């Protein structure tokens, strides 16, 4: 695929518009931040040209509003502390800020030429070839890419140890409101909650193995995998999801009615299990991983709905090979849905902070136990960024036509996002090249999804 021709106009370290107060200069991370993967979370916000208002390279309004917003999200402009692995120096050192001119008429037209788009999307991001957890590395970066026709793509990267998807979505919408000088009343309760999770859930010295997700062993003595990962995107529209729901039979053993997210995740697991069975000649035991947010669910800890940082619990559902051989969507839906239901019940039952602590660590240990067996079992991972206000981020040019994460490139990891209308789900799937060929021609994928297309955005 042809590369985007990008000219860098500006590259700088952008500091907050006002210094961070002395009493906020050191931020302890929480247990949840500690368990997060050391990586940058990459997101792209894509805007069509607007006849009434557009981005102006000669106007520094966007840059100024970002600097103002950073005063509220002050850890983003800091660095990991050199003397404490569990702290951030909120020293206002700055965030990576890049402005570019893209010599292409339109992002939608360019991406529409090929479905192998990941390499081009990476070029729209600001931070490259940097170790995410180094004390010298920025925690946050923004790249403003302006196309010939006036369309804009804002590429954002944030250290996962500092923020999860909720925190990033909160930041972007606050920045957009600041840029438009919106008179809409804002809920600023979250502005004072950066340290709340670390005070409730301080980090601990944990003896947990570390893993390279693209290999089949621990990071000690790993070898480079001898396969090529590819990433592709598929869309389940509202009708496809509704048709899938109709195939699910009533079952009294299901704890709750399956949501559209559970249905899509379950179908994904079913397809991946079928591919594994065909490849190995038998159905292997498999584990399906996902993440559940704690926000708004922990009754024993009031007012945590808007806390910033990372606040989630990793969860897994397990299936024995002989069950997977039945190849019934109901079986996968029941396992995923009931695991979520059981986790919600355990969270609701928690009567003190220690219960949440134990629940989180026990789940982390369960996942590591499975990872240690991954030469013998299949392990699939998902992360959902659904139900967040990504498409509300209006900087004055209208709402984005497409918001997307950029693939982490992790083998057999799938990212799920709401479509713009909120009724469908876009999935970003990464797997071995040969497995992707089988995935694309699976009857369920062919009948329930469409390839992501861009012609309608023009």
UniProtKB/TrEMBL annotation:
It comes from the Eukaryota. GO terms for molecular function: acyltransferase activity. Pfam families: Transferase. The keyword Acyltransferase applies. Keywords: Acyltransferase, Transferase. Belongs to the plant acyltransferase family. This is AT3. It comes from Solanum pennellii (Tomato).
């Amino acid at each position: 695929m042809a590369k985007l021709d990008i000219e860098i106009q500006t590259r700088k370290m952008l500091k907050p518009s006002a210094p961070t107060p002395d009493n906020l200069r050191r931020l302890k991370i929480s247990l949840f931040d500690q368990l997060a993967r050391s990586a940058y979370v990459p997101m792209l916000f894509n805007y069509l040209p607007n006849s009434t208002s557009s981005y102006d390279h000669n106007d520094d309004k966007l840059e100024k509003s970002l600097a103002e917003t950073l005063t509220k999200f002050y850890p983003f402009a800091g660095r990991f502390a050199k003397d404490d692995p569990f702290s951030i120096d909120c020293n206002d050192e700055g965030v990576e800020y890049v402005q570019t001119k893209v010599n292409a008429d339109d992002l939608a037209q360019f991406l529409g030429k090929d479905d192998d788009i990941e390499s081009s999307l990476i070029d729209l991001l600001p931070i490259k070839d940097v170790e995410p957890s180094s004390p010298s590395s920025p925690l946050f970066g923004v790249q403003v890419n302006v196309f010939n026709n006036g369309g804009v793509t804002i590429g954002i990267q944030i250290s996962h140890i500092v923020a999860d998807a909720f925190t990033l979505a909160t930041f972007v919408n606050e920045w957009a409101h600041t840029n438009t000088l919106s008179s809409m009343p804002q809920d600023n309760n979250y502005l004072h909650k950066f340290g709340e999770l670390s005070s409730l859930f301080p980090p601990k010295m944990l003896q947990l193995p570390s893993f390279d997700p693209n290999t089949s062993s621990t990071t000690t003595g790993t070898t480079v995998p001898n396969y090529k990962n590819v990433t592709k995107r598929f869309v389940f529209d509202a009708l496809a999801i509704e048709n899938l729901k109709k195939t699910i039979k009533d079952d009294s053993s299901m704890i709750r009615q399956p949501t559209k997210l559970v249905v899509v995740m379950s179908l994904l697991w079913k397809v991946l299990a079928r591919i594994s069975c065909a490849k190995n000649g038998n159905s292997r035991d498999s584990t399906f991983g996902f993440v559940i947010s704690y926000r708004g669910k922990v009754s024993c800890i009031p007012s945590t709905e808007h806390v910033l940082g990372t606040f989630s619990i990793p969860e897994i559902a397990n299936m024995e090979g002989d069950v997977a051989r039945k190849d019934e969507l109901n079986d996968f839906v029941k396992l995923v849905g009931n695991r979520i239901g059981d986790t919600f019940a355990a969270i609701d039952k928690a009567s003190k902070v220690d219960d949440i602590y134990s629940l989180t660590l026990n789940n982390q240990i369960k996942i590591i136990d499975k990872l240690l067996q991954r030469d013998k079992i299949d392990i699939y991972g998902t992360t959902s960024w659904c139900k967040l206000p990504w498409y509300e981020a209006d900087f004055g040019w209208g709402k984005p036509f497409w918001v997307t994460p950029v693939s982490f490139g992790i083998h057999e990891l799938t990212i799920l996002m709401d479509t713009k209308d909120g009724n469908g789900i876009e999935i970003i799937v990464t797997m071995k090249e040969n497995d992707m060929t089988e995935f694309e021609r699976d009857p369920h994928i062919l009948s329930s999804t469409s390839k992501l297309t861009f012609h309608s955005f023009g």
